[in-house]
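Please predict the structure of the following assembly.
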Amino acid sequence: MTTVVVMMHRPTAEALRPPRTVHVRFPFGRPFGLPGHAEQQRVVVEDALAVLVNAITPGQIVDLPYRWRREDYARILAERASQGQKS
Amino acid sequence: MAITVKDLTQNPGTVPFSRLKYLARREEEEVVEFFNRLFQLTAQAKDSGQWHEVERFLEEWEERLTNFRIPFYYDSSPWSPLGKPLSQCRLALITTGGLHLKDQEPFNVEGDWSFRPIAKDTPKEQFRIAHIRYDTKGVLEDVNCIFPLDRLKELAEEGVIGHVADVHYGFMGYIPKPEGLLQDTVPQVASLLREAGVDAVLIGTT
């Protein structure tokens, strides 16, 4: 079973070393973003799926750079679409 | 009336406080350091109109206050590569956010390693949350913030992933004694996922 886990607390990821971890510095309790913010959620899900596909080192932790409410998630998705990149 | 650390660090425990609330566990000296520095920075920020120093201060303290280690450690990671293109994969979600359905027994918020199956077409009105250790306000209005089922469905419609699994799983992540999880419920869920032909799992922690 191939897994990827989204975590907000990096020390726990470092201790548990899941096969693939996406670390996002969102508030605890909001791994995929704000309720009602589909674009933010989509960006994080896409990134997690990219790690699922591309990770090569067991225990790897990928840090996402997103600053909670500060990013323009719609713009990120638009840029990905225009680059023909979907995951 | 003597003011205590508890008085100073009172907070609603909501999302803005998800890391800062740990100030309540610190010694008095550290709490005084925090508030005194915050006092100085906010006065300066009000004067200058530049609040980024205050933000940076709070972010540094968020890191400092949550730099705790859990009492478990693994020095290796299991590995099971995907083995096929994502566009052919069946994906399932797992959440630790205490998600269950209205006809299912709620989780015991004091510690519970059981799981709840969540069918992919469950009407949203049937979702419930049983968890007291994170800010659950607003989550039921859009459960995608912990359990992005709608996002997965969109990705399946677009052909980015192959299929959304018929059944997904909710856990409640406050589990002080995890032996039952490791010996019982996780193997059960792994087996159920395998039987259902699930290729990959996206796990959201809380």
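The first helix of chain B runs from residue 5 to 8. The longest strand of chain B covers residues 90-95.
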